[in-house]
Description:
By secondary structure, this protein is of the alpha/beta class. The protein has helices spanning 2-18, 56-67, 83-89, 140-150, 169-174, 183-191, 207-214, 224-228, 260-266, 270-281, 300-310, 314-319, 333-341, and strands spanning 74-79, 93-100, 110-111, 125-131, 151-161, 199-203, 237-238, 243-249. Strands 1, 2, 3, 4, 5, 6, 7 and 8 form an 8-stranded mixed sheet that branches. Helix 4 links the parallel strand 4 (125-131) and strand 5. S-adenosylmethionine binds at residues 78-81, 100-101, 113-115, 131-133, 136-137, 171, 175.
Amino acid sequence: xxxxxxxxxxxxxxxxxxxxxxxxxxxxxxxxxxxxxxxxxxxxxxxxxxxxxxxxxxxxxxxxxxxxxxxxxxxxxxxxxxxxxxxxxxxxxxxxxxxxxxxxxxxxxxxxxxxxxxxxxxxxxxxxxxxxxxxxxxxxxxxxxxxxxxxxxxxxxxxxxxxxxxxxxxxxxxxxxxxxxxxxxxxxxxxxxxxxxxxxxxxxxxxxxxxxxxxxxxxxxxxxxxxxxxxxxxxxxxxxxxxxxxxxxxxxxxxxxxxxxxxxxxxxxxxxxxxxxxxxxxxxxxxxxxxxxxxxxxxxxxxxxxxxxxxxxxxxxxxxxxxxxxxxxxxxxxxxxxxxxx
Length: 342
Ligand SMILES: C[S@@+](CC[C@H](N)C(=O)[O-])C[C@H]1O[C@@H](n2cnc3c(N)ncnc32)[C@H](O)[C@@H]1O
């Protein structure tokens, strides 16, 4: 009986070994996998391998920034230090700023919590390098709205975030580590704030890269083809701790205004008129804050449509105060007021 079992195991082992990346994976017979150095309860390294070489996530992050180096120019903002601004922006950078949440941080030129940063001037930066920060911010939507607001028209946000990863203990203890992202959640979050056609999300990683990353092994220990192979079920970074790369391109600013005075003209057909105008203008809208909506506060059809068209949160539509439009283009408030006086 034992001999039969051994023969069966031998046969299934051969079948398993014959498996190639193109054929469906076979599960190995129990006991066949050799764990070797990986049969351990403590990771090989706890701080992402930074003391031995290039962290696995940094391989993806730096490849991502190298591919988008041309976007790093003019006035550039980076979080915590300006290493990547200098490394990838070079002489294209005219002004470099460093943002940190703590006023004591050496080298920071701007102190801000991005979730409540009204003191930061709008339309200031040509590029924001926002690597490995989103997972440390609980209210990611508020932070993304700030990033959108402080970018100049045509500016670019280069952001990365974690997929499969250990906790970054130091950051966890200082400001908290809240999130892991998939390419899907990242895309959804970014397109709630940025125009959908301007958002590109790429994920990176595979089971080997994920496992190496979790153990704090470094990119030098893997072959390039092993790092570059992408398995969509193992997103390590979006060009980040192996994970998510987000490249946002922002269109020209445009404000669509509708005043209450003007609303009188289109009240009967309010929803239709509003939606038609928005459909024509929506690609020009720079940000939700430019849209102010009051005339039909109770109209949930309009509100729902605006939310969908603008890819923003319902709360932003509800915050809106007044919108000006006429049947062909935008009106300004004073024109609408005159019209209302007539
Ligand atoms: C691991 S560092 C990332 C920056 C670094 N350049 C990099 O590539 O790894 C995490 C950063 O998140 C920032 N951070 C945490 N909460 C924040 C918040 N609410 N607003 C702005 N920055 C925040 C901290 O200042 C910290 O420097």
